[in-house]
Design goal:
single chain, 115 residues
Length: 115
Amino acid sequence: MVKYLLLLISMSLAITGQFLLKKGVSLSSLSPNFLSIVSTIFTPLVFLGLTMYALSSVVWLFVLQKFPLSIAYPSLALTYVVVVLLSIFILKEPFTLMKLTGVILIFLGVFCLYR
């Protein structure tokens, strides 16, 4: 049971990090030059998002210790499902039949791995 909790924590941190990065970059004036990139990295939301990713990576080490890689890594595909759904509800991104199809296929694929 602990291994599933670790997987869920790692995934949740990564998803949170992704949303913080999106929000932070949306509020920044990021451009492809060194000073802009460094400045953006140290804005609070982007920095917090990167921190969430770092924490997710640390927890991920424990996940890898508990699961076979052939199960653990594909399980991360569920983060795509959650990000799509949260993007629709939180960011008001459009919901399309193709997104629904993709989400269902990812979910079925991960489900098959656990059988």
